[in-house]
Task: inverse folding
C-alpha cells in the first residue's frame, strides 16, 4: 500500500485587515503610477467603451420622457398662442373692415359736399334710414324733412346724376321715389342731338326704359340722357341714364330703348336733396307776416269811429 500525501485539515488564510491593507497599497501604487505615468489610460478607455452602451441604454428612457414632457408643454403653449393669434386676427379684420367702410363713407361724403349744383339751388345732404316694405317699389326714407326745409317735388341727386324725387315730406323725414320706380318718369334729352324723351322706371335698380319711342327716332346705343328741365321740377343738365340698346316695335307701332342709370341707385346710403335758394334754412321759421284786416273788421271800423265821435259831441254839449 502506497503512502499518499494528504492536505492539512486547517489552512491558514490572510486576515481581513491584511487583505484590506494589501488592496489599499495596490490602489495607492496604481494611483501614483496613473498620476505620474498615465499607466491606466488604456484601461480606462477600454472600460469606457464597454460601459458606454449600457450607460446610453439606461439614460435613454429618462431622456425620452424629458423630451416628451417638453414636447407636450411646448405643444400646449403653441396651441394657446395660436388660439390667441386667431382671435386677435379676427378682431383686426373686423376693425379693418370698419376702417375701410368709414374711409369709403368719408370719401363719399367729401364728394357729395363738393358736388356742384345748378344755379338757384342749394344742396342738403341726406342719409337713407329705411327702405319701402313693398318689394315691387323703389322708394326710400331719408332723415331730412320739413324741419330741414325739404318740400315735396325736390330732386335728389348724387355725384353721378339723378337719383329720384321727394314725393312725401314729414317733419323729420321724407319719402323719396327713385327713378327706377315703376311709377316714376323723368323728362330727358339726348345730349347728342337734343331729342326729348321720357325715361321711366322698370322696378329694377339697373334698368330704365324709354317707352313709346318712335321707330324712326335718332337714338343710338351709348347715347347719354340728361334732364331737359321742361317739367319745371328737375334742373336741366342732370345726368340720368345711358342707352344700352334699342328694341324694334313688337305688336305695337312704338319701339323701346333700354337704359342704364348713371347714378348709384340702390348702392349708396348718402345722397343730396336740391333745395331752392328761397327755402328757409334748417332751424329757422319763416318771418311772421302782418295780419290783414278782414272785411267785417274793415266795416266795423267806421262804425266804431262814428260812435266815438257822437259820444264826444254829447259830452261837449
Result:
Amino acid at each position: 500500500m502506497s503512502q499518499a500525501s494528504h492536505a492539512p485539515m486547517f489552512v491558514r488564510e490572510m486576515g481581513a485587515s491584511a487583505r484590506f491593507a494589501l488592496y489599499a497599497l495596490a490602489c495607492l501604487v496604481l494611483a501614483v503610477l496613473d498620476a505620474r505615468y498615465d499607466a491606466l489610460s488604456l484601461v480606462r478607455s477600454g472600460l469606457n467603451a464597454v460601459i458606454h452602451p449600457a450607460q446610453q441604454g439606461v439614460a435613454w428612457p429618462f431622456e425620452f420622457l424629458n423630451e416628451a414632457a417638453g414636447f407636450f408643454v411646448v405643444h400646449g403653449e403653441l396651441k394657446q398662442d395660436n388660439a390667441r393669434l386667431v382671435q386677435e386676427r379676427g378682431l383686426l379684420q373686423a376693425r379693418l373692415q370698419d376702417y375701410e367702410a368709414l374711409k369709403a363713407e368719408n370719401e363719399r361724403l367729401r364728394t357729395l359736399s363738393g358736388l356742384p349744383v345748378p344755379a338757384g339751388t342749394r344742396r342738403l345732404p341726406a342719409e337713407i334710414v329705411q327702405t319701402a316694405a313693398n318689394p315691387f317699389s323703389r322708394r326710400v326714407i331719408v332723415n331730412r324733412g320739413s324741419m330741414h326745409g325739404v318740400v315735396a317735388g325736390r330732386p335728389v341727386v348724387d355725384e353721378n346724376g339723378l337719383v329720384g324725387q321727394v314725393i312725401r315730406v314729414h317733419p323729420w323725414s321724407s319719402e323719396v321715389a327713385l327713378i327706377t320706380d315703376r311709377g316714376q318718369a323723368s323728362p330727358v334729352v339726348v345730349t347728342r342731338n337734343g331729342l326729348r324723351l321720357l325715361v321711366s322706371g322698370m322696378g329694377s335698380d339697373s334698368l330704365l326704359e324709354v317707352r313709346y319711342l318712335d321707330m324712326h327716332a335718332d337714338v343710338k346705343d351709348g347715347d347719354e340722357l340728361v334732364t331737359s328741365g321742361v317739367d319745371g321740377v328737375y334742373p336741366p343738365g342732370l345726368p340720368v341714364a345711358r342707352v344700352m340698346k334699342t328694341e324694334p316695335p313688337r305688336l305695337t307701332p312704338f319701339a323701346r330703348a333700354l337704359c342704364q342709370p348713371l347714378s348709384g341707385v340702390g348702392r349708396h346710403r348718402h345722397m343730396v336733396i336740391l333745395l331752392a335758394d328761397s327755402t328757409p334754412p334748417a332751424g329757422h321759421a319763416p318771418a311772421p307776416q302782418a295780419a290783414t284786416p278782414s272785411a267785417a273788421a274793415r266795416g266795423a271800423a267806421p262804425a266804431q269811429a262814428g260812435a266815438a265821435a257822437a259820444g264826444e259831441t254829447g259830452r261837449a254839449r
About this structure: The longest helix spans residues 41-113. The chain has three helices and twelve strands. The two ends are 211 Å apart (CA to CA). The chain has a mean pLDDT of 80.
